[in-house]
Design brief:
This protein is an alpha/beta fold. It contains 17 helices and 21 strands. The strands form six sheets. An eight-stranded parallel barrel has the order 2-3-4-5-6-7-8-9, surrounded by nine helices. It has a four-stranded antiparallel sheet with strand order 13-14-15-21, covered by helices on one side. Strands 17-18-19 form a three-stranded antiparallel sheet. Helix 2 links the parallel strand 3 (42-46) and strand 4 (69-75). Helix 5 packs parallel to helix 6 (149-162) and helix 14 packs across helix 15 (373-383). The termini are far apart. The structure holds 3-methyl-2-oxobutanoic acid and zinc ion (ZN).
Amino acid sequence: MSDRLYIFDTTLRDGEQSPGCSMNIEEKMRVAHALAALGVDIIEAGFPIASPGDFEAVHRIASEIHGPKIAGLARAATKDIERAGMAVKPAGDHARIHTFIATSPIHMQAKLRMTPDQVLERAVASVKQARSLVPEVEFSAEDAGRSDIDFLCRVVEAVIKAGARVINIPDTVGYMTPDEFGFRIRSLIEKVPNSDQAVFSVHCHNDLGLAVANSLAAIENGARQVECTMNGLGERAGNASLEEIVMIMKTRADRYDIDTQINTTKIVPTSKLVSQITGMSVQANKAIVGANAFAHEAGIHQDGVLKHKKTYEIMTPESVGWTTNRMVLGKHSGRAALKARYLELGTELDDEQVIEVFGRFKILADKKKDIFDEDLMAILSADSGIDTERVKLVSLHAASGTNDVPVAAVELEIEGVHHKATAEGDGPVDAAFKAIKSLVEPRGKLLLYAVNAITAGTDAQGEVTVRLQNGDRIVNGQGSDTDIVVASAKALICALNKLPGMHAKAVHAQYSGV
Ligand code: KIV
Ligand code: ZN
């Protein structure tokens, strides 16, 4: 019988720590539902002590998501563990606290300013406290890759004795090489006398591009939980990518004979959802989920694939959820069909949401003949959190031409009051941005403006990502529309809505009503 590998998804925690990737609560709920449908074993839903918003998100995920275990992260500190315990409590016997403390010399001396004995004592006390709150405790030795192996063994033995049933060995700074890391995992399992009472887990960062290779080396040496993220999101260069780990297990079952519970046909829709929500686009040549992952350009390859797919394809695009841009719905489709298609894409809509989303679907279907899955996901993104937005786009008119100065006129509703502005710019998008920004404060500094056609054809919806910075806060906004200037305005407004304290600029003339 094949062994089982537990997939611990940390897209909502480590993934969210990627610059500009923070998600609001509705966005987190959508990702959590998609991860549950994908079949991950554990969702790390957030870091409850970090902010009230983080706490609420973990609490809601623990209340509403059924199937996977729900983990909340906590430093090895009393308050952190209390908050994490409260946040994951609604998950009942599926609740897990994931507590961590650093064990490498540099982290203990320079960051924690604690002796190894103090760290060990804190680790044990934290695991005991966490164990009194939830049925399952995971312990992580942060920067385990650079920790002294004998000290690591002492800590691991002590925390297992204190009740930890999952031992996570992170390569926090992505420093390890596969042979070193594999050896480290094997040494721990062999040397720690009570290692048979815990599942060994790994959490690899990708600073040297080795996160997946190091995770594989760990699996080969006994690890049975892998912490990973969709699209490899995460701090700095990211974490091991979920889709790669899962498809390696599936495609090379001859070598590993280790199963995951992942429904691989949901990988691409989940990847697209995460990319749309976070605004982190996936590079075209990214394994499994990149747009070119199954595209054959060279004539000799095309010829081979036409004769026999397996000449150049080691897995089928369908097996990971690539549809051939299949048209799913059109102008005459009804609510039930729409609801059913969203369910297939991993999102369950309640009756109220169906009404809302159906309205947007009809508007789009009037403009665009064929509605693809990508369009449906974009409709949903545009819909999320709409009622909580302080700024809404009422209307936009932009004009440009070869001999004209581009100009845009916008009307916004800011906290219930209508405001209008007109501006000229270097192009219609620039003019629209200037007009919008003249009405609000703070405006944020534009760090990124990216446009993507989400389906083929000149009637395709353009999806725009805008990244803004205000002080130390970086936010992303997305917008989609068949009109690229409108999509850009929506993306800017979406980002502005995420800037704390954003309000109407006082000097502008206001008027109410239309
Ligand atoms: O990279 C890391 O060490 C972490 C821990 C909190 C598991 O993210
Ligand atoms: Zn990490």
